[in-house]
Amino acid sequence: MNKKTGTLYGIGVGPGDPEMITLKAVKILKKVDIIFAAASSKNQHSQAVNIAKSHIPDTAKVEMLPFPMTKDKSVAQKAWDEHARKIITLLEQGQDAAFVTLGDSMVYATYGYILQSTQRLAPHLNVVSIPGITSFQAAASRLNRPLVEGEESLLLLSGANGGDRLRQFAGKAENVAILKAYKKVKDIVSALDETGMTENSIAITSCGLPDEEVIEDVRTLEKKPPEYWTLILTKNTK
User: Fold this and answer.
1) 3-class SS at 209?
2) Structural domains of the chain ordered from first start
3) What's the pTM value of the predicted model, to 2 decimals?
4) Which of 69, 102, 158, 222 is deepest in the core (most CB within 10 A)?
5) What percent of the chain has pLDDT over 70?
6) With b meaning 16 or more CB within 10 Å and e meaning fewer, what string describes 141-166?
7) Would you call 213 exposed, middle or buried from its count of C-beta atoms within 10 A (0-12, 13-18, 19+)?
8) What residues contact 192, with CB distance under 8 A and at least 6 apart?
9) Which stretches of the chain are DSSP H helices?
């Protein structure tokens, strides 16, 4: 008789507003045995858990998995595999687990690394990924600004390393969403100026959260302290 194994659910909990979690995500959060989330190796904070906490039963165990903030891929891979093995052990025991992540489970999500490690180390186990509303979708709705219309295209970029990706792909899409526009925001603003997109740009920080702020003049971001939850929507009208 084959031993029953558990399922890993990767859950996107949305951009910040707890009401923007899908019904399916809530249903799964209420039934799993343990909930994992990524945290910095320096603390136990998880914005994803904070968003989902009103939907997590008191009986559920919540565990933070520390991820090193490093560009060394070998160090990062070691951490992903280590955490995946911990999850795999529980699944092999028949427990169901969830990994909660901000926005969508497949868009710039830490869960993606856990997913790949789990599938590589234990391909026989069942993994189900649950989509969530992304920050750029929420920002577009908050600003009443369509992301794409007609035959337009949308380019999604990470601004974690500055504006070089924007420079590289400028003019190849009518609409651009730049996520993680914080530490290197000065270079991002410079790239917007260089590509003639500044006037059609708007930024928003902490979308859907109490401290949300809309910045209509993105040049002011150069003088503001870096804010992790910052994204920029821009349009190429040339």
Assistant:
1) coil
2) 7-130 (3.40.1010.10), 135-235 (3.30.950.10)
3) 0.91
4) 102
5) 97
6) beeeeebeeeeeeebebebeebbebb
7) middle
8) 163, 166, 198, 201, 218, 232, 234
9) 23-29, 47-52, 73-92, 111-121, 135-142, 164-169, 185-194
